[in-house]
């Protein structure tokens, strides 16, 4: 079955938990894209919600869909966030940041009462770090030194976009993609990386997802 179809059915299933008057965190990524399209349809059909986007890309799509938007400053508590993930382990820990929005996604996650993660079945692993590199957002100043320290944790990292043309995040930073042979202790690695001067945040999300909605060829599967 087409992977895009699996993403679509997972994303649209998540939107069924949106209720009238909610403040909804709007995640980033190719799976959440289908949720944004569905929410746009729901808004045009009369649903009143407020969305708080996690990236400029999501903000643009939501605006095009007519979804009313606000900020975390105006709505410090988000009732429900729908977001994607690049990898999900058996304990609902996540790797996020393939769309370079991991810092804002983590801030929104921290402000959310409930978090629904939508993925297709290819994103599920027994152990994090076995199928997707871990994104680490770092400041531009002294990035070479920061990278050397990051590599002591993960072994090898690569500048996203390459050193000659690095990707710049919405926050004006770089992304290092760190390669592991598995991350059996994600909470430990998350803290190790975040304790390095120059690291803004990394893409490990521990104990944050309330439910993972997985699109499979046999329909929807849940982890919670």
Can you tell me about this structure?
This protein is 29% helix and 25% strand. It is an alpha/beta fold and 224 residues long. It has 2 domains: 3-122 and 206-216, Rossmann fold, CATH 3.40.50; 134-199, Alpha-Beta Plaits, CATH 3.30.70. The chain has a 6-stranded mixed sheet with strand order 2-1-3-6-12-13, with helices on both faces. Strands 8-9-7-10 form a 4-stranded antiparallel sheet, with helices on one face. Helix 1 (3-15) packs across helix 2. It starts with a helix and ends with a strand. The model has no long low-confidence stretch (mean pLDDT 97).
Summarize the SSE layout with pairings.
Blueprint: H1 3-15, E1 23-26, H2 32-44, E2 50-53, H3 56-64, E3 80-84, E4 87-88, E5 94-95, H4 102-110, E6 115-120, E7 134-138, H5 143-154, E8 156-159, E9 174-179, H6 186-194, E10 199-202, E11 204-205, E12 211-216, E13 219-223
Parallel strand pairs: 1-2, 1-3, 3-6, 6-12
Antiparallel strand pairs: 4-5, 5-11, 7-9, 7-10, 8-9, 12-13
Summarize this, please?
This protein has 224 residues and is an alpha/beta fold. 29% of the residues lie in helices and 25% in strands. It folds into 2 domains: 3-122 and 206-216, Rossmann fold, CATH 3.40.50; 134-199, Alpha-Beta Plaits, CATH 3.30.70.260.
């Amino acid at each position: 079955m087409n992977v895009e179809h699996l993403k679509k059915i997972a994303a649209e299933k998540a939107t069924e938990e949106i209720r009238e008057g909610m403040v909804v965190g709007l995640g980033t990524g190719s799976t959440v894209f289908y949720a944004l399209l569905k929410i746009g349809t729901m808004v045009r059909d009369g649903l009143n919600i407020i969305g708080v986007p996690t990236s400029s890309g999501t903000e643009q799509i939501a605006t095009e869909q007519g979804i009313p938007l606000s900020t975390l400053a105006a709505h410090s508590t988000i009732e429900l966030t729908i977001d994607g993930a690049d990898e999900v382990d058996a304990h609902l820990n996540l790797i996020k940041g393939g769309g370079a929005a991991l810092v804002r996604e983590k801030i929104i996650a921290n402000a959310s009462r409930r978090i629904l993660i939508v993925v297709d079945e290819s994103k599920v692993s027994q152990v994090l770090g076995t199928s997707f590199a871990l994104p680490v957002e770092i400041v531009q100043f002294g990035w070479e030194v920061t990278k050397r320290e990051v590599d002591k944790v993960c072994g090898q990292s690569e500048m996203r976009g390459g050193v000659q043309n690095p990707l710049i995040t919405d926050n004006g930073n770089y992304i290092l993609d760190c390669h592991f042979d598995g991350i059996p202790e994600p909470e430990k690695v998350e803290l190790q990386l975040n304790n390095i001067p120059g690291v803004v945040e990394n893409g490990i999300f521990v104990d944050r997802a309330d439910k993972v909605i997985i699109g499979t060829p046999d329909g929807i599967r849940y982890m919670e």
